[in-house]
Amino acid sequence: MLIQTGASGFMHPHSSEITPEAAYLQRREFLQWSAASGVALASGAAWAENSAFAGLKPVSAVASTVSGARATDKLTPFADASSYNNFYEFGLGKEDPARNAQAMPVRPWTVRVEGLVNKPQTLDLDALQKLSGQEERIYRLRCVEGWSMVIPWIGYSLSKLLAQVEPQGSAKYVEFVTLADSQSMPGLRRAVLSWPYTEGLRLDEAMHPLTLLTFGMYGHELPKQNGAPVRVMVPWKYGFKSPKSIVAIRLVESEPRTAWNKAARNEYGFYSNVNPEVPHPRWSQATERRIGEGGLLAPKRKTQLFNGYEEQVARLYAGMDLRKNF
Ligand SMILES: Nc1nc2c(c(=O)[nH]1)N[C@H]1C(S)=C(S)[C@@H](COP(=O)(O)O)O[C@H]1N2
Ligand SMILES: [Mo]
C-alpha cells in the first residue's frame, strides 16, 4: 500500500535551481528521508525493503481530512522517534524502551471497553483495527520535559470505538489502563509510578476527532517502544497524556486519578493541556527543543497554546481557568 504524505516539510527543489552536486545531495537526503518516513516515492522505491523498519509490518492508511490533523512541520526522523522514548515500564533512560521493550508480548492482544456503556466489548487487535478505516495524521508531540517531535501516526478517531459501545448518560470521563506485565517490564520493580500506568480524559476530549486510537507510525505498525500494539494520541496535551500499550478503556462517572497525577499532584494536573503560559512548578514551558534538529545548540522553538491545535480544541475549555485546571 502507499501512503500519500504531501506536506511534511521537505522542500522539493526545481532542478533548474540547483547544481549537479547539490542535486545529488538533495536527492540523497530525500531518499534517506523517504526511507525513514515510510513515504513511497513516485519513482517506485519501496520502503518495505528498508532495513530501518526491520520486523515492522506495513500498515495501510489514507491521508486524514480531519481539521488540524496534518501538521506541516518537518517530520522527525523515524530513527529518532523510535530511539528517544519515555516508557517507564522499561526504564527511566531515553534509550531504555528501545532496548528493553522488545520482550513485551503484543500478540495476542485484547482491549476491554467497559464501564458505563450499553455494549461492553472485548476486542482483539484484528477486530479493533477493522472497526474503521485508518488514517495517517501528522501530529506534534510535546513532552512535558521540554522537547517535541513531529510524527506521522496511523489510526482512527477514538470516537468511532466509543460510539460502538454506546456510553450511558452518566459516563463523563474515560480512563485508560495500560499493560503491567512484570515478566517483560523491568521498570515495574521500581515504584516511580503506580502501575499499571493509567491516564484519563473528559468524555468530550476523548470524543474529539483529533483524539487518535493509534496502531502505527511512518507507514508501519508501532514499534514496541512507541506503545505497540495500540495507544492513544492526544496532540494538544503533554505527551504523558498519550498512554501506550492499552489493555482497557473504561467509561466512568468521576474524574479518574492518573499515574502522573498520583506521583506528583501539584506538578501534573488532570488536564495537562500544552500551555506556554503555565509553567511547570520547576521549569518554564514557554519553549521547546525539536528532537533531530541540531541537538542542544539548535535554537529553541516557542511552544504554542494547545500545542498548535487551538483552533480545533479551545472550545472544549471555554470559560475554564487554565491556570487552575492545569
Ligand atoms: N504506558 C506508558 N505510556 C506512556 C509513557 C509511559 O511511561 N508509560 N510515557 C508518556 C510520555 S511522558 C511521553 S512524552 C510519550 C512518549 O511517546 P513516544 O515515546 O512515542 O514519543 O508517551 C507517554 N505514554
Ligand atoms: Mo513526556
From TrEMBL:
Name of the protein this chain belongs to: Protein-methionine-sulfoxide reductase catalytic subunit MsrP
Domain of life assignment: Bacteria
Post-translational modification: Predicted to be exported by the Tat system. The position of the signal peptide cleavage has not been experimentally proven.
Cofactor binding notes: Binds 1 Mo-molybdopterin (Mo-MPT) cofactor per subunit.
EC number: 1.8.5.-
Function: Part of the MsrPQ system that repairs oxidized periplasmic proteins containing methionine sulfoxide residues (Met-O), using respiratory chain electrons. Thus protects these proteins from oxidative-stress damage caused by reactive species of oxygen and chlorine generated by the host defense mechanisms. MsrPQ is essential for the maintenance of envelope integrity under bleach stress, rescuing a wide series of structurally unrelated periplasmic proteins from methionine oxidation.
HAMAP family (UniProt xref): MsrP (MF_01206)
Signal found in the keyword field: yes
UniProt: Mo-molybdopterin binding residues: N85, Y88, E89, C143, T178, N226, R231, S242, P243, K244
